[in-house]
Amino acid sequence: MQILRAANHRRMPWKNGGGETVEVAVSPEGATLGDFDWRISMATVAFDGPFSIFPGIDRTLSILSGSGMTLEIDGHEPVDLAQQSPPFAFAADIAVTAQLMAGPITDLNVMTRRDAFMHKVERLHIERSWSGSLPAAISLVLCHEGEASFELAEENGMIYAGDVLMIEAHCRAALTLAGAATCYLISITAI
């Protein structure tokens, strides 16, 4: 288990050069945008335009701040995403264009290599406490707003806005979060 502090996240340009992304975690460590197994990042989208294409990758997007955006996904009806929308999963290797609803947004982007991993993203609104078992061998808790204490297997600590608690090899272990926070539980499973 380790805490990835917000101050240490890596900033880098988007694959298509259209903006900046904050890389929260990537596997294997040091992987590039072309050879990662899984990647978690946050990006500010300030203009309408196309998403970067990632061959063989599945993606889930959640709106962290701003009014939201409409995604036009190749061959499908447009999808409106706002902060209250559930995390939205789609293929990252098809044409997707974003149109902002009313100004810039910040999103959470979780990506996994389709032939090796699968993932799930769940938003947690913690008013006092939350408890649950970790569904995957790799689980990450991103504290988006507020702060939360955690307890897992007799270890405990605090995460604050922007921090990520990364937990490996604790599948089905009981995690408790306490405080007032909005968090995202990200589960990554090898296929």
UniProtKB/TrEMBL annotation:
InterPro entries: RmlC-like_jellyroll, RmlC_Cupin_sf, Uncharacterised_HutD/Ves
Origin: domain of life: Bacteria
Annotated CDD domains: cupin_HutD_N
Pfam families: HutD (PF05962)
Protein name per UniProt: HutD protein
Organism of provenance: Rhizobium mongolense
